C-alpha cells in the first residue's frame, strides 16, 4: 500500500468505527480486523501503520467526529508528512480544501467532561484517560518465578508494590508465556488485593467475565479453598476454564447466571462466602486508554442503566456473604455515580454494614474507598471499596 492508500484505509475504518459507536456495533479492534480480513493484499507493515493511524485519530477526538476524514485531518494539521498523503491519487484521499473542517481535539464528549469534573478529576486527569496504555503482566508463581520471567523479557520493568507484576511496552508479544503470565493491568491487580483472599477461603467472583481476577484470587489463595466464578455472559465465562487449566488453577468452578434471576441459581451459596468480589458492569471510563472509542458510545441514559445494574448486583453479592464476611465493590470507572456514591447508597440501604479502610500499593482516597487513575497511578482507572457484613 502507498502512504496515501494507508491514509484512505484509516479514514474508511474510522468511518466504520463512528457508525458502530452510534449504532452499538462492533468495537474498533474488531472493525480493524474485519477490514483487513477482506483485504489480504495488505502486508503486516501496512496493517500496523493503518491501525496506528486509526487509533491516533480516535484518541484525539473527544466528541464523535463528523467523519473519518475529519478525524484524520485533525492529525494532519500537525503532521506535514500525513497531510501530503491527501494527494487525490487513485487509492488515496482527496486533496485538503483550505476551509475544510477537522475534528476538534478533546478528552471526551462535553457532558462526560462535566461528570468527570464533578467527580473531582481535572483537565490533566481527563487528558491522561486516552494516553496509550503499556502492557502489564501478572506472573503466575505456580508455574514461574518473577526473576525467571524478567530474564525472558529484558524490556520488562517491575511495578512498585506489586511483586508479581511486570510492565512492558505496548504491543509486546507474550503469547509464548501463556499460563506462566496473565495479561492484567496493574490497577486490576491492585484492586483485587482488596479481597484479601487467603488460602482455604470460600470466595465468589460474581461478575467474573473471562476470569482475570478469578485467577489472581486463586494465586493469592495458593490454589487452596474454593472459588465460584459466575457471570451472565456465556461467551466471556467460557474463556475461564482453559485459562485456569493453563495456569494450573483447580479450585475455580464456573456458573452461568440468568439476568434478574441470579439468586435462584446461587441459592446454595447464600451467606456462605468469606469474600464476594463484585467487578461490576460499568461505563468503563477508566479503560479509555485501551478502548478510546468507548467514550463515544456512552450516553447519560446508558450510564444511569449501569448505576442501576450495579446496585442490583451489589444486593446479590451481599446475600452471598457470610456474617462478618466482606463484599468488595470494583468498577473500572472514575465517575462518583458508579464508585463513591454507589457505596454510600449501599451502606444507607444496608444497616449494619460498614466500609473498611484499604491499604493498597496505589490509589487515592475517594469516599469510602480508593480511586486509581492513569495520571496519578499509571494504571487504568478504578474505584474499589471493601464492605464488612454485620456478624
Word description of this protein:
With 391 residues, the chain is α/β, with parallel strands linked by helices. It has two domains: 3-106; 185-388, 3-Layer(aba) Sandwich (Rossmann fold). The protein has 17 helices and 13 strands. Strands 5, 6, 7, 8, 9, 10, 11, 12 and 13 form a nine-stranded mixed β-sheet that branches. It has a four-stranded antiparallel β-sheet with strand order 2-3-1-4. Helix 1 (3-23) crosses helix 2 and helix 3 (44-60) crosses helix 4. The N and C termini lie far apart (67 Å). The mean pLDDT is 96.
- List unreliable stretches of 5+ residues: none
Overall shape: it is: globular
How much of the polypeptide forms β-strand, as a percent range?
15-25%
User: Could you tell me the mean pLDDT?
Assistant: 96
Rounded Rg: 22 Å
Largest sheet: 9 strands, mixed
| Total separate domains | 2
CATH superfamily of the largest domain: Vaccinia Virus protein VP39
Beta strand count = 13
Helical run tally: 17
Overall SS class = alpha/beta
Q: How far from one another are the termini? A: 67 Å
Q: Any guess at the CATH architecture of the largest domain?
A: 3-Layer(aba) Sandwich
CATH class of the largest domain: Alpha Beta
Helix content: 25-40%
Task: Walk me through the topology.
Elements: H1 3-23, H2 28-37, H3 44-60, H4 68-76, H5 80-84, H6 110-118, H7 123-128, E1 135-139, H8 146-152, E2 157-159, E3 162-168, E4 181-183, H9 186-192, E5 202-205, H10 212-220, E6 226-231, H11 234-237, H12 240-247, E7 252-256, H13 262-265, E8 273-279, H14 294-297, H15 300-320, E9 321-331, H16 340-349, E10 354-356, E11 364-366, E12 369-372, H17 374-377, E13 382-388
Parallel strand pairs: 5-6, 5-8, 6-7, 8-9
Antiparallel strand pairs: 1-3, 1-4, 2-3, 9-13, 10-13, 11-12, 12-13
Amino acid at each position: 500500500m502507498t502512504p496515501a492508500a494507508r491514509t484512505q484505509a484509516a479514514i474508511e475504518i474510522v468511518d466504520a468505527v463512528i457508525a458502530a459507536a452510534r449504532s452499538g456495533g462492533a468495537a474498533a479492534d474488531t472493525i480493524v480486523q474485519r477490514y483487513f480480513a477482506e483485504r489480504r493484499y495488505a502486508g503486516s507493515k501496512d496493517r500496523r501503520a493503518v491501525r496506528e493511524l486509526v487509533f491516533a485519530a480516535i484518541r484525539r477526538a473527544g466528541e464523535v467526529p463528523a467523519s473519518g476524514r475529519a478525524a484524520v485531518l485533525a492529525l494532519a494539521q500537525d503532521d506535514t508528512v500525513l497531510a501530503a498523503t491527501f494527494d487525490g491519487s487513485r487509492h488515496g484521499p482527496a486533496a485538503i480544501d483550505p476551509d475544510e473542517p477537522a475534528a476538534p481535539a478533546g478528552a471526551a464528549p462535553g457532558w462526560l467532561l462535566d461528570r468527570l469534573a464533578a467527580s473531582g478529576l481535572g483537565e490533566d486527569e481527563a487528558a491522561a484517560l486516552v494516553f496509550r496504555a503499556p502492557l502489564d503482566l501478572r506472573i503466575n508463581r505456580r508455574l514461574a518465578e518473577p526473576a525467571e520471567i524478567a530474564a525472558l523479557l529484558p524490556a520488562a520493568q517491575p511495578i512498585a508494590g506489586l511483586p508479581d507484576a511486570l510492565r512492558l511496552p505496548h504491543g509486546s508479544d507474550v503469547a509464548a508465556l501463556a499460563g506462566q503470565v496473565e495479561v492484567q493491568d496493574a490497577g486490576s491487580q491492585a484492586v483485587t488485593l482488596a479481597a484479601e483472599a487467603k488460602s482455604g477461603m470460600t470466595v465468589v467472583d460474581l461478575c467474573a467475565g473471562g476470569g482475570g481476577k478469578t485467577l489472581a484470587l486463586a494465586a493469592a489463595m495458593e490454589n487452596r479453598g474454593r472459588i465460584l466464578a459466575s457471570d451472565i455472559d456465556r461467551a466471556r465465562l467460557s474463556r475461564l476454564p482453559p485459562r485456569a487449566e493453563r495456569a494450573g488453577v483447580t479450585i475455580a468452578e464456573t456458573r452461568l447466571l440468568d439476568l434478574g434471576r441470579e439468586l435462584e441459581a446461587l441459592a446454595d451459596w447464600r451467606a456462605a462466602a468469606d469474600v464476594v468480589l463484585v467487578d461490576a458492569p460499568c461505563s468503563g471510563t477508566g479503560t479509555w486508554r485501551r478502548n478510546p472509542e468507548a467514550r463515544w458510545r456512552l450516553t447519560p441514559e446508558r450510564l444511569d442503566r449501569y448505576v442501576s445494574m450495579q446496585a442490583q448486583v451489589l444486593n446479590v453479592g451481599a446475600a452471598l456473604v457470610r456474617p462478618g464476611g466482606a463484599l468488595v465493590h470494583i468498577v473500572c470507572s472514575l465517575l462518583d455515580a458508579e464508585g463513591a456514591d454507589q457505596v454510600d447508597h449501599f451502606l444507607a440501604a444496608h444497616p449494619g454494614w460498614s466500609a473498611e479502610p484499604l491499604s493498597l500499593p496505589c490509589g487515592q482516597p475517594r469516599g469510602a474507598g480508593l480511586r486509581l487513575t492513569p495520571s496519578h497511578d499509571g494504571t487504568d482507572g478504578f474505584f474499589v471499596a471493601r464492605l464488612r457484613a454485620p456478624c
